[in-house]
Amino acid sequence: MKLFVSRAKETPRMFRSDFAEFFSRVHWTVPLWLYVPFIAYLLWESFVVHRVGALAVAGLFALGVFLWTLAEYLLHQFVFHYHPKSEWGKRVIWIFHGVHHDYPSDPLRLVMPPVVSLPLAALFYGAFMFILGERLAPSLMAGFTLGYLIYDISHYAIHHFNLKGAYFGWIREHHMRHHFSEPNRGFGVSSPLWDIAFGTDFQRPKAKSESLS
Fold first, then answer.
1. Do 174 and 186 form a contact (C-beta atoms < 8 A)?
2. Could you report the per-residue pLDDT of 91-149, keeping only the tens digit for each?
3. How far apart are CA 28 and CA 30, in angstroms?
4. Would 184 be classed as within a structural domain?
5. DSSP secondary structure, 117-140, as one string
6. Residues 6+ apart with CB under 8 A from 52
7. Residue 42 has pLDDT above 90, yes or no
8. What is the mean pLDDT of residues 78-89?
9. Residue 88 covered by a domain
10. Is residue 113 part of a domain?
11. CA-based nearest residue to 109, from 159, 38, 168, 161
12. How many CA atoms lie within 13 A of 203 on its CB side?
């Protein structure tokens, strides 16, 4: 059973300024061009400059991917779905995320524009440097950035590709329920892990065998 009806691939105008409007639109491949070289550089810095061991790099990298899933969940729930009272605040939240709920098939506003993702990346990298120091932070940031890329590209794919397979079908259904059924649940996009952990997953019908027991 289909959970949604795809809307036209309309890209609405958000700003009066052509300059601001230009930077609000981004092709889905832009994050790949920006962040794949960045990940490669961070790994080079870890191995060559700081001479961190392979196991330590692998562990920090995996931890970074894991931490991104948590950051994704928290940003989506508490920032993008924040409900401000002021008109100015409502406008800001609409620019950041509301426009995506109003135009979910807009192909140019499905990945985070660099004017938002670059400052966020600098903020997180600064936090990692403060906590771990300059020797270990690059490995963690490389994994964190890969997690972000998985989120951004999978988000685009969920809305524009007919994803197959058990896992991809699951996350697609999960995100479509968030859009068209219960917007106050299902905040994980690349993974429903934290929705399950924090009780914001969707109530799913029990199997017949369970209901008859």
1. yes
2. 877 777 777 777 777 777 777 888 889 999 999 999 999 999 999 999 999 999 999 99
3. 6
4. no
5. HHHHHHHHHHHHHHHH-TTTHHHH
6. 46, 60, 135, 136, 139
7. yes
8. 84
9. yes
10. yes
11. 159
12. 1
Distance, first Cα to last Cα, the chain: 26
pLDDT grade for 61, boundaries at 50, 70 and 90: very high
Task: Provide the domain count of the chain.
Answer: 1
Q: Tell me the pLDDT tens digit for each residue of 172-211.
A: 888 888 887 788 888 888 888 898 899 888 876 555 444 4
Length of the chain: 213
> How many helical (H) and strand (E) elements, i.e. helices and strands, does the chain have?
10, 0
Compute how many other C-beta atoms are within 10 angstroms of the C-beta atom of residue 57: 21
Residue 55 vs residue 212, higher pLDDT: 55
Higher pLDDT, 48 or 189: 48
User: What is the structure's pLDDT at 205?
Assistant: 54
Higher-pLDDT residue of 29, 104: 29
Q: Which residues, including other chains, have CB under 8 Å from residue 175's CB and lie 6 or more apart?
A: 155, 158, 186, 189
| Rounded distance between C-alpha atoms, residue 153 and residue 149, angstroms | 6
Distance CA 181, CA 76 (A): 17
Indicate whether 179 belongs to any domain: no
Burial bucket for residue 51 (CB in 10 Å: 0-12, 13-18, 19+):
exposed
Give CA torsion, residues 99, 101, 105, 109, to 10 deg: 40
Residue 60 belongs to what domain range?
A: 18-162
Residue 46 CA to residue 57 CA, distance in Å, equals 7
